[in-house]
Write a structure and sequence with these properties.
This protein has 255 residues and is α/β, with parallel strands linked by helices. The protein is 39% helix and 24% strand. The chain has ten helices and ten strands. Adenosine-5'-triphosphate binds at residues 13, 16, 18, 36, 38-44, 85. Belongs to the ABC transporter superfamily.
């Protein structure tokens, strides 16, 4: 059954059609890759799913509900979390505080409860810290939980973003170029981490330029070019699709 579905989605920036009548589905507990050359519209599609943009037309359906037009925080509450191509962490805050920031969308305490340190609020805070530490351990960053996020390597900052997204309790996690800036060893570890996320029952949608990673981990690929979907299928099907070869290499002709 599909968890997420885009139907005929269009997004324009002035005269530029960044996403042109795109439709695809993401099955529950699958890993799906959205690929395509630079400027193909991949990040714009992500922004349409997460509520950062509203489509000009078309629908985005998540767990049977149309979600387009809703505010990003509402979409997070419904179970979609994301990471960003340009890392967006609180650089001066600790690793733990960054992950706790993700957890806050699941907490109930308001100003009143916090000011008066009500017992249920303290319990909620304690369990949020425990959960944040679990997510840090899951991505392998728990040892340095008190360090400043800004001191982490680029690759580890990407892992911290994943931990923060996981702390929101997502059904779907959307990763925008998770291997960007990672070395081969870090990318191999990321591949295992994505498999572990899937094992937890969380569906993964990712944009990635590292074709090895995409081919290894994804059950389905959706290919965009100039805002339009040009192909969809298993990694094997996509590898040998002439339209895809042409989009990436400029020609499908071997000669
Ligand atoms: N906020 C914006 N305002 C105007 N044009 C935009 C905006 N965001 C994206 N675009 C344009 O829309 C097109 C699609 O951009 P998008 O970032 O979605 O592509 P992409 O496939 O994610 O590219 P990359 O792989 O380089 O990140 C590009 O031509 C881009 O310049």
């Amino acid at each position: 059954m599909s968890l997420l579905s885009l139907q005929n989605v269009i997004k324009k920036f002035g005269g530029l059609t960044a996403v042109n009548d795109v439709s695809f589905t993401v099955d529950e507990q699958s890993v799906v890759g959205l690929i395509g050359p630079n400027g193909a519209g991949k990040t714009t599609v992500f922004n349409l799913i997460t509520g950062n943009y509203a489509p000009l037309s078309g629908t985005v359906t998540f767990r049977g509900q149309v979600i387009n037009g809703q505010k990003p925080y509402k979409i997070v509450q419904q179970g979609i979390a994301r990471t960003f191509q340009n890392i967006r962490l609180f650089q001066q805050m600790s690793l733990l505080e960054n992950v706790l920031a993700g957890r806050h969308c699941r907490m109930h305490a308001g100003l009143f409860a916090s000011m008066f340190c009500l017992p249920w609020q303290q319990r909620e805070e304690k369990s949020a810290v425990e959960r944040a530490m679990q997510e840090l351990a899951f991505v392998g960053l728990d040892a340095g939980y008190d360090n400043e996020a800004g001191n982490l390597s680029y690759g580890n900052q990407r892992l911290l973003e994943i931990a923060r997204a996981l702390a929101t309790d997502p059904k779907l996690i959307i990763l925008d170029e998770p291997a960007g800036g990672m070395n081969d060893q870090e990318t191999a570890a990321l591949t295992e981490l994505i498999a572990a996320i899937q094992k937890r029952g969380i569906t993964v949608l990712l944009i990635e330029h590292d074709m090895n990673l995409v081919m290894n981990i994804c059950q389905k690929l959706v290919v965009l070019e100039y805002g339009a979907k040009i192909a969809e299928g298993t990694p094997e099907e996509i590898k040998s699709n002439p339209k895809v070869i042409e989009a990436y290499l400029g020609t499908s002709d071997d000669e």
